[in-house]
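Fold it.
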Amino acid sequence: MILHYMDDVLVYAANDDLLSHALDLTIDSLVAAGFELQEEKIQRMPPWKCLHSHKALQFALDSYTGQISIHQPAHKLFREQIQFKLSLKNVQSRRPLKALTIFPDASGASHKSVITWKNPQTQQWEKDIVKVEGSPQVAELAAAVRAFEKFPEPFHLVTDSAYVGGVVSSAEQAVPSEVSNTALFNLLSKVVNLISHREQQFYVMHIRSHTDLPGFIAEGKRRADALAAPVEMAPLPNIFEQAKISHQLFHQNEAGLVRQFHLTQEQARAIVSVCPLCQQHALPALSAGANPRGLNSCEVWQTDVTHIMSFGRQKYVHVSVDTFSGAVYASAHTGEKSSDAMKYLI
């Protein structure tokens, strides 16, 4: 078999004798055509098994209708120096671990990419801040990449970005798709590469942003938000924050917060509901719009029926109480159906 490819000629034969004969004929033909050949340019390789004589491959490709090429695809992945490793071992845990907790965050205004964590040895909060140009999602993804680079030991990754949480959760045993944004593609490739070579487990947790819930997770997220915020942004007067601070000192109820700080009922309820001290003595709250008492006499009455067996046939006593003054009006009846209630009220 003789194959011409660009400025090379490949001569292949089944045995050495046939190869030498075919090579001599090829050289004579090229010289006769006017080509000049140098002896040192002729390379002789050890015996290879050509694919055209590989029966298993021929059967496999017998009904294949696509194209076969010896060149790598034009995907960016094959032009990078990153080497991916396919492993059958899952390093992403589906359950929380007893490990370090890392909080990534980013800001589009300050372009800060932040990770913060509590050092288990010193019990002090530490941080890593880098300026990253691009969208907040790209900056927070860069923070997640630094977490994988910095911490080879098991850890929790707590993020309020659904995009970052989804990317990291699905990166194991995946191949990044080609995207036009070079910076984003590099970050995606790093995430996949770092996870594919990772030995220790990690766990991804997605939480809601800017929540006032108590606990370690909310505290770490608030610290990450504060680190990512622009330095030049001065604190503005916030009535809601003032109400929260006041409630921590005096523990007003919902009505007191509404009257003092002019909050909505929902805002006041949100402050009281997250106070651990108030939860120990909390009473069942009335539904929205209910008025527990009237503003004037004989304005709001509460009515019920009680049974007094010593009254005989008229044991059904209908009772009404004025919620403002506490005045009571009652009368005995022979039943408690709607018709009896109407007679009582009329």
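The CA atoms of residues 253 and 288 lie 15 Å apart.
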